[in-house]
């Protein structure tokens, strides 16, 4: 069968490769009877065109008598949809197999391959009418925004078609305004679809007034927002989270929202995609096994690092090239500093396969300071330093906690406890009131009691940012020695920050120096995120964008800068558990409402969507000859061939206005003249006296 056709290569471990995704049309659309072959072929072709592997709903496991054969094959099932990414010069192939239920021993097998440049290039998610879009109402004052909101509400009416027309008009106006030379002083950003436009406008009409009176930003649950005091700052900082930020399923819809990421990955990375590399999307044939693999992900340090780097590179590309947000500052917490080096320099990202291979082979990440596997072995450096038996489970001597206390409070409590907490380490300072500590569980609990604060257990898959990492400084530097501080290209004009100087923060010129020693020093010192944020703010940064997994860095930046009383905006590209497209719109809405960041959203709308709205509002495209004649027809010195719908949108739209009465009396005469003009232009030789165009010009 199919499993036998895709058996693992001789000599390889059973199911080690998992390079062939398998699915059925039936799982997506149900029974199709005699059309099942055609349905499977259509689905397969769409997978190639969209570079997308759809999920197989309700999959649990193959039938019992086939389980061993499936386990030994290269097949895997997608419990969740995911991108179908290929390495540079790699091709995609799909096979459609079927058997006949009416003709014994009859079957078919069709092979399809992709073709260069024959892919979906735009965001298909926006074609869904229920998918939210971002609409912008601009004005020179909050009062003007309120007037525009109420005017839009008046135009909505009560019919669904009127709501769609108004929604389309606002969307087209938003895209057109992005090309204007100057932006309005204030902007109300609405995150909605046609069905929810009225609700968001009603909320905004009141919310903007309240915001203007209080000076506080208005924000709706859907993501609409208005800033009465926009920062209008071009000083943008990109932030990258630590190694524990990535999670299973991160970035699943990114390639649908921004298909150009496929080409970018092929250009900017080397062998970054394969069964080994996308471990944040488990591959298997047993649902329970894939769930267990996902839970073990947080203990696989190299896989977490791989995911963090990959998504930092992709998210940065989307933010810079598609949203047009160009940073002037960049920094990362812990491993986020290395992720920033990858994201801003293609020389580094082209080394991704080599760096990851070094990590896989280094004892630092596979045994000394991390788990050997997901079953509790590893951390030999801690065992040796603390006298822990080799057979003791890691959980007995290494546990992490997020404690609700400042750095000063934690350090003071550790000093007071002395030997009673000699195996507790302050690893990360998250914000002004949260720190990450790890060590022997009983001693960590004693620290929490000394602090008299709340604490939450947190997985720590690696023992970094502590003195036990110092003996491995040279090895860490060697592994990262192929990286450089970003130089040229995307790094031009960007100030980088490092916490490699014994915990203090320093700026780095984008000069291409060897980044290995910098990364090694970061591993050996407490990572202090508030210090990084404060350093960037002191050099003028006011807009902070988290370009990585989750939104914890954005929340921490708001906390740090809020306590300082510094003007700021902090947003996140991603948020765990949130719809990726809506989260991106929320981020863009906040940036646009604050002005000057250059953020644009028009490039992420599908051209088919914009064309459909344009046709709905203005009718189908008019031939040039007809369009030229229409411009020359004047009624009452003001009216130029406008239709009744267009006239209703004009300022003088009252039923008793001269233009309205004249159009009602003329009925279809202007249209007839236009049609006659088109016919005469097409059939009459140039210069003929019977040409309506020439008569009009005379």
UniProtKB/TrEMBL annotation:
**Recorded superkingdom:** Eukaryota
Q: Name one GO molecular function term.
A: acyltransferase activity
Q: Which residues form the Beta-ketoacyl synthase C-terminal domain?
A: 17-56
Transmembrane domains' residue ranges = none
The record's section on InterPro entries has: Ac_transferase_dom_sf, Acyl_Trfase/lysoPLipase, Ketoacyl_synth_C, PKS-FAS_Synthase, Thiolase-like
* Protein name as catalogued: Beta-ketoacyl synthase C-terminal domain-containing protein
Q: Which species?
A: Phaeocystis antarctica
């Amino acid at each position: 069968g199919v499993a036998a056709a895709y058996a693992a290569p001789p000599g390889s471990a059973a199911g080690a490769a998992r390079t062939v995704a398998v699915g059925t049309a039936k799982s997506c659309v149900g029974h199709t009877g005699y059309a099942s072959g055609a349905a499977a072929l259509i689905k397969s072709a769409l997978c190639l065109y969209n570079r997308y592997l759809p999920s197989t709903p309700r999959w649990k496991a193959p039938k019992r008598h086939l389980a061993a054969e499936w386990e030994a094959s290269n097949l895997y099932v997608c419990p969740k949809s995911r991108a179908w990414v290929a390495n540079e010069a790699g091709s995609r192939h799909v096979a459609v197999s079927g058997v006949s239920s009416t003709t014994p021993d009859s079957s078919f097998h069709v092979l399809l391959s992709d073709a260069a440049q024959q892919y979906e290039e735009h965001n298909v998610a926006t074609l869904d009418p229920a998918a939210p879009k971002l609409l912008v109402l601009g004005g020179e004052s909050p009062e003007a925004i309120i007037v525009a909101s109420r005017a839009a509400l008046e135009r909505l009416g009560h019919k669904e078609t009127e709501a769609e027309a108004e929604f389309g008009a606002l969307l087209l106006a938003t895209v057109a305004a992005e090309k204007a030379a100057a932006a309005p002083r204030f902007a109300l950003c609405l995150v909605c679809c046609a069905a929810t436009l009225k609700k968001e406008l009603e909320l905004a009409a009141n919310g903007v007034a309240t915001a203007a009176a209080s000076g506080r930003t208005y924000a709706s649950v859907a993501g609409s927002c208005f800033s009465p005091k926009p920062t209008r700052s071009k000083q943008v900082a990109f932030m990258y989270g630590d190694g524990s930020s990535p999670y299973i399923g991160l970035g699943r819809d990114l390639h649908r929202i921004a298909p150009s990421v496929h080409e970018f990955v092929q250009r900017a990375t080397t062998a970054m995609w394969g069964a080994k590399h996308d471990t944040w999307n488990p591959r298997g044939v047993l649902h329970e096994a894939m769930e267990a693999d996902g839970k073990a992900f947080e203990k696989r340090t190299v896989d977490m690092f791989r995911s963090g780097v990959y998504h930092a590179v992709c998210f940065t590309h989307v933010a810079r090239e598609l949203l047009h947000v160009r940073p002037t500052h960049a920094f990362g917490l812990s491993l986020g500093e290395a992720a920033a080096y990858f994201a801003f320099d293609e020389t580094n990202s082209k080394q991704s396969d080599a760096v990851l291979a070094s990590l896989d082979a280094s004892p630092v990440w596979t045994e000394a300071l991390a788990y050997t596997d997901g079953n509790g072995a590893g951390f030999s450096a801690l065992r040796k330093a603390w006298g822990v038996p080799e057979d003791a489970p890691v959980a007995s001597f290494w546990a992490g906690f997020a404690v609700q206390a400042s750095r000063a409070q934690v350090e003071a409590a550790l000093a007071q406890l002395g030997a009673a907490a000699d195996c507790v380490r302050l690893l990360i300072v998250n914000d002004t009131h949260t720190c990450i500590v790890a060590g022997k569980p009983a001693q960590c609990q004693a620290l929490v009691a000394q602090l008299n604060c709340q604490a939450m257990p947190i997985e720590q898959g690696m023992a970094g940012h502590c003195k036990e990492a110092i003996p491995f400084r040279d090895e860490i530097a060697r592994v990262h020695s192929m990286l450089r501080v970003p130089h040229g290209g995307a790094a031009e004009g960007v100030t980088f920050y490092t916490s490699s100087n014994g915990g203090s923060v320093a700026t780095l010129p984008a000069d291409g120096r060897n980044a290995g020693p910098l990364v090694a020093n970061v591993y050996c010192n407490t990572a202090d995120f508030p210090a990084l944020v404060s350093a960037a703010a002191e050099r003028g940064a006011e807009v902070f964008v988290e370009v990585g997994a989750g939104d914890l860095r954005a929340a921490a930046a708001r906390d740090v800068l809020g306590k300082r009383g510094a003007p700021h905006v902090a947003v996140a590209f991603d948020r765990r558990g949130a719809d990726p497209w809506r989260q991106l719109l929320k981020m863009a809405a906040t940036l646009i409402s604050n002005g000057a960041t250059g953020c644009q959203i028009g490039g992420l709308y599908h051209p088919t969507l914009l064309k459909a709205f344009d046709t709905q509002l203005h009718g189908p495209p008019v031939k040039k000859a007809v369009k030229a004649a229409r411009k020359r027809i004047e009624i009452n010195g003001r009216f130029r061939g406008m239709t009744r719908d267009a006239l209703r949108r004009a300022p003088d739209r009252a039923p008793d206005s001269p233009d309205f009465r004249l159009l009602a009396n003329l009925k279809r005469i202007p249209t007839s003249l236009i049609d006659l003009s088109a016919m005469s232009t097409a059939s009459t030789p140039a210069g003929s006296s019977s040409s309506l165009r020439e008569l009009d010009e005379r």
